[in-house]
Design brief:
- It contains 17 helices and 19 strands.
- It is an alpha/beta fold.
- It folds into two domains: 170 residues, Ribosomal Protein S5, domain 2 (2-Layer Sandwich); 303 residues, P-loop containing nucleotide triphosphate hydrolases (Rossmann fold, 3-Layer(aba) Sandwich), CATH 3.40.50.
- Strands 12-15-18-11-19 form a five-stranded parallel β-sheet. Strands 1-2-4-3 form a four-stranded mixed β-sheet. Strands 5-8-9-10 form a four-stranded mixed β-sheet.
């Protein structure tokens, strides 16, 4: 006798469809599980046998071989126990069930179907999960509530499999909670009109931002208020972040608010990037679709900062451990602040800098040129005029909405300007010869790279969007150059 049941298992941060195959033949009574099961799954043999007997079923003395296909992937969780138990009852002809159903659940010794703590990411990351009808534990109903359109049958005990039928199928209907706006805003910040514009452009085009200035000048205060400019996440983004949090700390929280992560400079490599075995996501994944703020950028370990270069461009992080390569999302907006030197007054016009030239050079060696090249907005802050209340929070919000709206109309796939290539920018934007000359002259004068040209053009495109302009004008190019003060740093 032979039967096959559908289930699912984790493959890093993704899910993999699993076929639980079982054969029952005459021979020495035994149960063999093959197909790279881990220790937890191997231990489930005794638990499943006890659950079947205590649920009022029989356990005929035969030779059973249970294969978990595909066989070249390690299976690490107990979500396969319900599928294995169902396959056993089918191969011994004690129940008859539609083989198109997908079974996900753990089994207790008495036959109860227990809760899977990470069932939401397990189902959501399964390819084409809306095409399946799942059989799950009754205790997991609240966990799958955000999966709108999902079809499932919830059971409490193994003996419920006897009455399983299509009339029990439930379809999830989900309404997202209301987005809560940030209580802090930019009206509390006096002056800093140029820095506020940098914050707006950073949000619209998803451009990385670095503020440099003396202690207490307002770098952190400005960046903290960027949360209030962020539009709410869509359902897919909220679900992806919710699943990542479940993988990290088993906490279920569906939240349409963009995350705002501020890891301390003493954080470890694994804490920031991800690590352990099997690999776990780090802070750059927890900031997915949100903001990652590194205060006192020069105090972070250099090898951590250098590892950020690839996620800044690829929007994901690839981790390899013991022959396993796992990809985690890392689509964050990078924000940073730092002093210009050890004493903090190198660019200050009123307070003299106390650092030696060799100390300033050593300080800036912590930040590599390739990393700086990936930061679109590099702004050196000066002392603000506290009587200046120009560029209000309301005006900033209006500019963000305008910029994002123009960008989406031009680009239905919603690719942020920060990812556009040079050819695409020239193709979609009318750039005058004078604007091109201004840019070329600036790049030649400061010996900038091709990446710097791309960075300034991307920023110019965002500035044009923010001003409701389809063309890139001279003032957009000059504004982008004004906000790209990288040449002052080395």
């Amino acid at each position: 006798m032979y039967k096959k049941i559908k289930s699912a298992s984790f493959l890093g941060a993704k899910s993999l469809p699993i076929h639980v195959e079982i054969s029952a033949t005459q021979g020495l009574p035994q149960e063999t599980i093959i197909g790279l099961p881990d220790t937890v799954i191997k231990e489930s043999r005794a638990r499943i046998k006890s659950a079947i007997l205590l649920s009022g079923f029989k356990f005929p003395a035969m030779s059973y071989v249970i294969n978990l296909s595909p066989t070249d992937v390690l299976k690490r969780n107990t979500s396969l126990e319900l599928a294995i138990s169902t396959a056993f009852l089918m191969v011994t002809e004690q129940i008859s069930i539609d083989e198109s159903l997908c079974f996900i659940g753990s089994i207790a010794l008495d036959g109860s179907i227990t809760q899977i703590r990470q069932i939401l990411p397990l189902i959501y990351f399964l390819p084409n999960y809306l095409d399946f009808t799942f059989v799950i534990s009754k205790k997991n109903e609240a966990d799958i509530a955000p999966l709108h359109g999902l079809r499932y049958i919830a059971i409490e005990h193994l003996h419920d499999l006897k009455q399983l039928n299509a009339s029990q199928i439930v379809t999830v209907k989900f309404t997202a909670p209301t987005f809560l706006k940030s209580l802090i805003n930019f009206d509390e910040v006096k002056g800093h009109a140029l820095a506020k514009k940098a914050c707006v452009f950073s949000i619209i085009g998803r451009h990385p931002l670095l503020f440099i200035g003396s202690p207490g000048i307002g770098k952190t205060m400005l960046i903290q208020r960027m949360q209030s400019l962020q539009p709410p996440l869509n359902h897919h983004q909220s679900l992806e972040n919710c699943c990542m949090e479940l993988l990290i700390n088993n906490q279920f929280k569906y939240d349409p608010s963009p995350p705002y992560r501020t890891p301390h400079h003493s954080i470890s490599y694994a804490g920031m990037i991800g690590g352990k075995n099997p690999p776990q996501p780090g802070e750059i994944t927890r900031a997915n679709h949100g903001l990652l703020f590194l205060d006192e950028l020069g105090e972070y370990h250099r090898h951590i900062l250098e590892t950020l270069r690839e996620p800044l461009e690829n929007k994901c992080i690839q981790l390899s451990r013991a022959g396993t390569s796992i990809s985690f999302p890392a689509d964050f907006l990078f924000l940073a602040a730092m002093n210009p030197c050890y004493c903090g007054h190198y660019f200050d016009t009123k307070t003299a800098c106390r650092c030696l030239p060799s100390q300033i050079q050593k300080y800036w060696q912590k930040i590599s040129q390739p990393l700086l090249d990936r930061i679109s907005l590099c702004v050196i802050l000066s002392k603000p005029n506290h009587n200046d209340i120009s560029f209000t929070h309301h005006e900033m919000i209006s500019m963000v909405k305008t910029g994002i709206s123009i960008s989406k109309k031009r680009n239905p796939k919603a690719i942020p300007n920060q990812l556009l290539e040079i050819d695409a920018i020239y193709e979609m934007s009318s750039i005058s010869e004078k604007s091109d000359y201004i840019l070329t002259n600036f790049l030649s004068k400061h010996q900038h790279s091709i990446r710097a040209k791309r960075r300034i053009l991307q920023l110019s495109r965002t500035i044009a969007d923010a001003n409701n302009e389809t063309r890139i004008l001279n003032n957009h190019i000059t504004m982008a150059i004004q906000l790209s003060q990288h040449h002052h740093l080395h």
